[in-house]
Amino acid sequence: MDKKTVEWLKQADYDMDTAEFMANGGKHFYAVFMCHLAMEKALKGLYLHNLQEAPPKTHSLVFLLNKIGLRPDPDKGRVVAILNEANIATRYPDDIDKLQSKYTQEIASRILAQTKEILEWIKAQF
After folding, report:
1. Region 3-123: CATH code
2. Please, what is the average pLDDT of the chain?
3. How far apart are CA 56 and CA 76, in angstroms?
4. Which residues have C-beta within 8 Å of that of residue 33, sequence separation ≥ 6?
5. Is residue 36 a contact partner of residue 83, using CB atoms and an 8 Å limit?
6. Band of the pLDDT at 82, cuts 50, 70, 90?
7. Which of 18, 10, 34 is nearest to 91 (CA)?
8. Are 119 and 39 in contact (CB under 8 A)?
9. Rounded to an integer, what distance in angstroms lies between the CA atom of residue 61 and that of residue 3?
10. Residue 29 — pLDDT band, cuts 50, 70, 90?
11. Measuring CA to CA, how many Å separate 80 from each of 3, 24, 52, 60, 94?
């Protein structure tokens, strides 16, 4: 595997660890943001690996999946859609109190677990 691809995956794992750290510290919407970032980096690694070109500077998980030609099952697709939507809200919050009430510990924990599963699925595509 190419050195740059390995780096994308290494950073995806690091971001997933950061997501867990944030969740354990009660920073739930940041945990969700880091889940998005971890998945984005794993997909960019797969993009580079499969297409042999630098991934585009986008945060859209759906765009990356489509460009790679990867089709998640409906359960994974729902999580990707949730994270894709959460990306902007968690990156640039309009109302931090509203965001904190939306991404509770329960929701963040569920998203963390689902993201881990999807990351394993992405890695299995190499």
Report:
1. 1.20.120.330
2. 96
3. 22
4. 86, 87, 90, 91
5. yes
6. very high
7. 34
8. yes
9. 22
10. very high
11. 26, 22, 24, 10, 22
Please report where in the chains the tokens 């997933």 appear, as a residue.
16
**Would you say 109 and 23 are in contact if contact means Cβ atoms under 8 Å apart?**
yes
DSSP codes of every residue in 1-69? --HHHHHHHHHHHHHHHHHHHHHHTT-HHHHHHHHHHHHHHHHHHHHHHHHSSPPPS---HHHHHHHHT
Residue-level pLDDT at 87:
92
Rounded CA-CA distance 50/65 in Å is 12
Token code pair at residue 54: 């630098």
Query: What residue spans define the domains of the chain?
Result: 3-123
Residue 36's φ and ψ, nearest 5 degrees, are -60, -45
Q: Which residue has the tokens 């580079």?
A: 48
Residue 2, amino acid: D
Compute the average pLDDT of residues 96-103.
93
Q: What is the mean pLDDT of residues 66-83?
A: 97
- DSSP 8-class letter at 112: H
